[in-house]
Known about the structure:
Blueprint: H1 3-11, H2 24-36, E1 42-46, E2 54-62, E3 68-76, E4 84-90, H3 101-104, E5 109-113, H4 133-136, H5 150-167, E6 171-181, H6 183-194, E7 198-204, H7 211-217, H8 223-231, H9 236-244, H10 248-251, E8 259-264, H11 272-281, E9 286-291, H12 300-311
Parallel strand pairs: 4-5, 4-6, 6-7, 7-8, 8-9
Antiparallel strand pairs: 1-2, 2-3, 3-5
Helix pairs in contact: 5-6
Amino acid sequence: MNYIEQKEELLKTQIIPQTKEADFEAFWEGEIRALREVPLSVKRRELALPYKTFSSYEIVFNAHDGTEVTAYFCVPNTYRGEKLPCVALYHGGGGMFGIQPEFVATGVCTFSMDCRTQGGKTSDQASYEYMDDYHGGIMSHGLLDEHNFYMRNLYLDAVRAIDVIATLPEVDAERIVAHGQSQGGALSIVAAAFSGKVKKAYPTVPSYSCLQQRVENGSGVFASVNSHLTLYPSHTDRALKTVSYFDINNIVSFLKVPVDFFLGLTDPACLPPFVYSPYAHTDSPKKITIAPFTPHTISREYKLELLKELSEL
């Protein structure tokens, strides 16, 4: 048994159980049904960027709640009227993905949205009944009600993005895949689980899993939730119930398409059991790449393998 195999055997003893509420499936079925009842509106304009090998467009689409989500769509100049594969790219927390030339260079279209209120062009027009910006940040927005929580809106935006991609004339709707790192890895799983249009997901060091443990540990963005509950302990049970609906460790139960996970054993943000557990709970075709000394990022080896697979779409 080699080094990585030994580490995986240890991870198998650390799998964190799912925490699905009795109405978990019904909740998400209702949310996706309501999302699809909102007519889709898409605006598009070409961007004047200095890239000569592909064309770039800004896409603005309507979310379920009136928020206008900004995204970036790139089409390689090899496009001659035939429909091309597309990779939906989701960025990490507090960042933005924008234009990614190395992905377009594989011959696929790319589509990347700015997550609401995270530094890009997408603001948040949702009306939250409860907010604690000082202690909780965006993860306190609607923290006491799963129907009003920030993560609900973020996840529905990720699914809506796939619906938009499927309407674009350059895209073959039968060849849409999803990829992202950290928060983006979680959103790629969400898109694959709920859109019905993603054919494969490539979540790299996916975040937003095992959320009770992350709140307890004060890990990453959930440090603010930990701080909030320190001051308002009476909110604890309600808050943990809310986040359970958005826990990737639970959401993987909806997956029906292949998923290719990437886990870094020295990741200080998304701890290895927090990535391995959703992998273990996934019942669809799956694969996991374990990188022994990679932190909260993607290894060069794996990225090259991913780009090669995209080039073969």
